[in-house]
C-alpha cells in the first residue's frame, strides 16, 4: 500500500463528551459526518453522555452516533477515557458538543496531522477565547509554567479540539485527569515525552447553552494538575526552579542584612537558604531518576 492510499483509507474515531447537550448534539453529529464525507475519510462518532437527564443520549442515537452513557456525571476526562476504550481506530478526534469549535476547520487539522504529527491541536483565537477576568489571565500564568517545564512554546494548553494517536492516551491513561484538565495533562505529557505536536489556529465561538465549568475551583485545580504532570514526567525542572529561588533568597538576604550592618545575621540567613538549595536540587535528581524508572515500567506494560 502506498502512502497516498494509506491516507485515503485512513479512518478516525471521533469522541464527543456531552452533558445536557440535547439542543446541539444532533447538529454537531450531522456537521461532523458531512465534513468527514467531504474530506473522503471514514469516521465512527462516539458520544459519551456524562449522566445527562435531558435526552442527550436518545438524540445522539437517533442521529446515528454510537452512544456510551455514564449513569452519573463523572467528568470530562473520565468520559473521554470511556470513549477511548470504545474507539475502534488508531487515530482519535475529540471535540466538544457545544458549538464552540468550528467543525468546518476539521480539514485543516486532518491535513496537518497526516503530515506525520502525533498530535494536532486547534489553537483557539478571537474575543471569546480571551474573555474572562479570571480565566484568561490564569491561563497565561499556567501556560508560562508549562512552557518552562517543556522548553517550548505552547500556543493553547487545554484546547478540547484535537487529533492524536490513541496509543499516546493509552500510554498516559492512568495519569490523565478525569476532569476538565484532561487536555492540559495530555498536552504536557506528550510534549515532555518528545511527541510531535502541532497547532492550527481556529476561531472560538460562544457556546450553545450553559457552561459546566466552575472557573474559580477549576483554575486552582489546573495549577495542581500542571505541577503533578511536571513532577511525574520532568521533575528536575521544577526542583531546579525551587533551588534557584533559594539561591536568590540567600543572596538577597545577605545583601539586605549587610547593607544594614548585620553581616552575621545575613550570613546565617544565606547559609540556611543555600543549604535548602542544595537539598532541593538533590531531591530533584532523585525524583528525576524515579520518574524515569516509572516511565520505563509504563513502557514495558505497553510492550514498548
Question: Brief overview, please?
Answer:
The chain is α/β, with parallel strands linked by helices and 304 residues long.
Question: What can you tell me about this protein's structure?
Answer:
- There is one protein chain.
- By secondary structure, the chain is an alpha/beta fold.
- It has two domains: 3-233, Spore Coat Polysaccharide Biosynthesis Protein SpsA, Chain A; 235-301.
- The chain has twelve helices and seven strands.
- Helix 7 runs parallel beside helix 10 (215-233), helix 9 (182-192) runs parallel beside helix 10 (215-233) and helix 10 packs across helix 11 (235-259).
Q: Main traits of this protein?
A:
single chain; 304 residues; alpha/beta; Spore Coat Polysaccharide Biosynthesis Protein SpsA, Chain A; 2 domains; 12 helices; elongated; disordered N terminus
Number of domains: 2
Mean pLDDT: 87
CATH topology of the largest domain: Spore Coat Polysaccharide Biosynthesis Protein SpsA, Chain A
- Label the CATH architecture of the largest domain: Alpha-Beta Complex
Strand content: 5-15%
Provide the low-confidence segments as ranges: 1-7
User: Counting H and I runs of at least 4 residues, what is the number of helices?
Assistant: 12
Report the C-alpha radius of gyration, rounded: 23 Å
Percent helix among the residues?
55-70%
Secondary-structure element string = HEHEHEHEHEHHEHHEHHH
Record the strand order, biggest sheet.
3-2-1-4-6-5-7
Amino acid at each position: 500500500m502506498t502512502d497516498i492510499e494509506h491516507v485515503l483509507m485512513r479512518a478516525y474515531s471521533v469522541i464527543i463528551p456531552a452533558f445536557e447537550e440535547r439542543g446541539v448534539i444532533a447538529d454537531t453529529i450531522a456537521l461532523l459526518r458531512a465534513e468527514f464525507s467531504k474530506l473522503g475519510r471514514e469516521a465512527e462518532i462516539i458520544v459519551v453522555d456524562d449522566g445527562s437527564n435531558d435526552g442527550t443520549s436518545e438524540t445522539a442515537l437517533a442521529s446515528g452516533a454510537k452512544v456510551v452513557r455514564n449513569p452519573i456525571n463523572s467528568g470530562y476526562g473520565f468520559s473521554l477515557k470511556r470513549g477511548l476504550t470504545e474507539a475502534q481506530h488508531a487515530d482519535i478526534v475529540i471535540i466538544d458538543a457545544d458549538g464552540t469549535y468550528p467543525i468546518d476547520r476539521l480539514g485543516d487539522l486532518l491535513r496537518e496531522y497526516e503530515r506525520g504529527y502525533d498530535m494536532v491541536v486547534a489553537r483557539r483565537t478571537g474575543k471569546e477565547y480571551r474573555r474572562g477576568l479570571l480565566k484568561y489571565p490564569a491561563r497565561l500564568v499556567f501556560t508560562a509554567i508549562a512552557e518552562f517545564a517543556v522548553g517550548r512554546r505552547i500556543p493553547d494548553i487545554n484546547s478540547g479540539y484535537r487529533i492524536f494517536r490513541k496509543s499516546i492516551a493509552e500510554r498516559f491513561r492512568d495519569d490523565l485527569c478525569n476532569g476538565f484538565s484532561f487536555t492540559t495533562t495530555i498536552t504536557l505529557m506528550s510534549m515532555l515525552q518528545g511527541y510531535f505536536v502541532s497547532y492550527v489556529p481556529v476561531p472560538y465561538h460562544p457556546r450553545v447553552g450553559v457552561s459546566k465549568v466552575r472557573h474559580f475551583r477549576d483554575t486552582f485545580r489546573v495549577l495542581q494538575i500542571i505541577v503533578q504532570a511536571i513532577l511525574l514526567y520532568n521533575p528536575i525542572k521544577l526542583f531546579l526552579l525551587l533551588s534557584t529561588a533559594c539561591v536568590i533568597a540567600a543572596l538577597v538576604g545577605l545583601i539586605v542584612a549587610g547593607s544594614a550592618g548585620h553581616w552575621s545575621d545575613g550570613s546565617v540567613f544565606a547559609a540556611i537558604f543555600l543549604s535548602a538549595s542544595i537539598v532541593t536540587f538533590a531531591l530533584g535528581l532523585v525524583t528525576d531518576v524515579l520518574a524515569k524508572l516509572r516511565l520505563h515500567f509504563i513502557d514495558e506494560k505497553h510492550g514498548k
